[in-house]
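User: Let's play a game. I give you a shape written as tokens, and you guess the letters that built it. Ready? Here's round one.
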């Protein structure tokens, strides 16, 4: 029976698993967001959140404990300088898992693991830039390309001038007097 066996071994040896989680935690702390599989994200969440809680108290002991888990000097300094002051009042739940679908190659469930206080779009601080949706139309692009293209010969230039002159007169409502024979 496997009562109270809650650790996900992720199909790796203990040394490989600890090293992988340490590297992923350092990347999460430095970049504030990583893309990984859902199983790894859930395992990493239980690895990172106690570290962030320990970082609230800035002492030599807590820095050394964080370094023993992360094994990355820049990640430890980033954790204590930037992340811990920002999450000081938060009682827990420092990370968020956003599922993004399945991976193409092996159909593994993928997700984004991010630090909660660093997502500006969800906090409402910075509005997401909404791009204008455009429709694909061949005729407008062709016409625009023909108008901007320089004529290769003098005759083509003269024909182009004649074509552009006629619609302007018709739009203005003017009638063109033609000589009678």
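Assistant: Ready! My guess for every position:
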């Amino acid at each position: 029976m496997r009562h109270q066996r809650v650790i996900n071994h992720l199909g790796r040896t203990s040394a490989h698993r600890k090293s992988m989680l340490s590297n992923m935690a350092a990347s999460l702390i430095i970049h504030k967001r990583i893309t990984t599989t859902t199983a790894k994200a859930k395992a990493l969440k239980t690895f990172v959140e106690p570290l962030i809680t320990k970082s609230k108290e800035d002492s030599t002991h807590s820095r050394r404990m964080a370094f023993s888990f992360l094994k990355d000097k820049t990640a430890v300094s980033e954790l204590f300088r930037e992340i811990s002051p920002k999450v000081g009042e938060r009682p827990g739940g420092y990370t968020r898992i956003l599922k993004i679908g399945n991976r193409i190659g092996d159909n593994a469930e993928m997700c984004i693991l991010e630090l909660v206080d660093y997502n500006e779009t969800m906090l409402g601080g910075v509005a997401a830039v909404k791009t204008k949706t455009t429709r694909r139309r061949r005729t407008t692009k062709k016409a625009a390309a023909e108008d901007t293209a320089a004529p290769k010969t003098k005759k083509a230039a003269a024909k182009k001038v004649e074509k552009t002159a006629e619609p302007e007169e018709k739009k203005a409502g003017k009638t063109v007097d033609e000589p009678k024979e």
